[in-house]
Design a protein that fits this description.
The protein is an alpha+beta fold. The chain contains 3 helices and 9 strands; from the N terminus they run H-E-E-E-E-E-E-E-H-H-E-E.
C-alpha cells in the first residue's frame, strides 16, 4: 500500500529536550532583563513629570526577580510625599503676612492634566514639628483642621495610573525589551546554543 508518512526525525529529539529544559530559565531571564530596562528608563521620566528638584530614588525599589517557576518580575514603588515647593518653578507670593498668599506651580509636566499648571490664590505655609519642609495648604472649610496640603506627584501614584507618561514609558519599554529578549533566547536555544539565566545565549555551546 502506497502512502506518505510524516514523522519527527530521531535527530531532533535531543534538541527538543534541550529547548524544553532551558526555556523556563531563558524566559525568566528575559523577564528580568526587560523589567530592569523598564525601571531604568522610567526613573528619570518620573522625576521630569513631577518636575521635582529633589531625588526620588528611595521611592523606587529594586526589581524583584522572576524565576523559572514564577515568570513574574516586580518593581515596588514606596509612598513618598514632596512639598509642591520642591518642584521646579514653584512660587509662593506672600500677601498680608509671610505665610499667607498665593501659589503658582506645576507638576505632571509630561503627562498633562489638571496639575500641569497649578494655581492656589488663597494658600498658606505650614511649618513646625510635623512639617520639617515647608508645606503649602489651602482651606477646605472653617474648622481649624479643615485644610488640604498640596503635594507634588509621587512616584507611587504616578506609576499606578497607566494614563500617566512614566507608567506608559515603563510598560512600553518592558514590552519592547521582553519581545526582543524572548526572541533572542529562543532562537539561540533552537540553534543549539546555550541560553543563560540572563536571557542571552552563546552559539555552539
Amino acid at each position: 500500500m502506497s502512502g506518505i508518512y510524516v514523522k519527527v526525525s530521531d535527530t531532533l529529539t535531543p534538541l527538543i529536550m534541550k529547548v524544553a529544559r532551558e526555556t523556563p530559565q531563558a524566559l525568566s531571564g528575559a523577564v528580568n532583563t526587560a523589567t530592569k530596562a523598564a525601571r531604568k528608563y522610567a526613573v528619570p521620566v518620573i522625576k521630569q513629570d513631577a518636575n521635582l528638584t529633589e531625588s526620588i530614588t528611595k521611592e523606587i525599589g529594586r526589581v524583584q526577580l522572576a524565576s523559572p517557576g514564577n515568570l513574574t518580575a516586580r518593581v515596588e514603588f514606596k509612598p513618598g510625599r514632596h512639598s509642591i515647593l520642591r518642584t521646579g518653578g514653584a512660587t509662593f507670593s506672600p500677601g498680608t503676612s509671610w505665610n499667607r498668599g498665593s501659589l503658582s506651580a506645576s507638576t505632571h509636566r509630561l503627562s498633562g492634566g489638571g496639575s500641569a499648571s497649578l494655581s492656589a490664590p488663597k494658600s498658606f505655609i505650614l511649618r513646625g514639628a510635623n512639617h520639617g519642609k515647608f508645606m503649602i495648604a489651602y482651606r477646605t472649610g472653617k474648622a481649624r483642621k479643615a485644610f488640604k496640603v498640596i503635594y507634588a506627584a509621587s512616584a507611587k501614584a504616578t506609576m499606578h495610573d497607566e494614563t500617566q507618561k512614566p507608567a506608559q514609558i515603563f510598560i512600553q519599554t518592558a514590552q519592547r525589551e521582553l519581545d526582543r529578549e524572548v526572541s533572542s533566547a529562543l532562537q539561540t536555544a533552537f540553534a543549539g546554543g546555550h541560553v543563560s539565566a540572563g536571557g542571552h545565549g552563546s552559539e555552539g555551546e
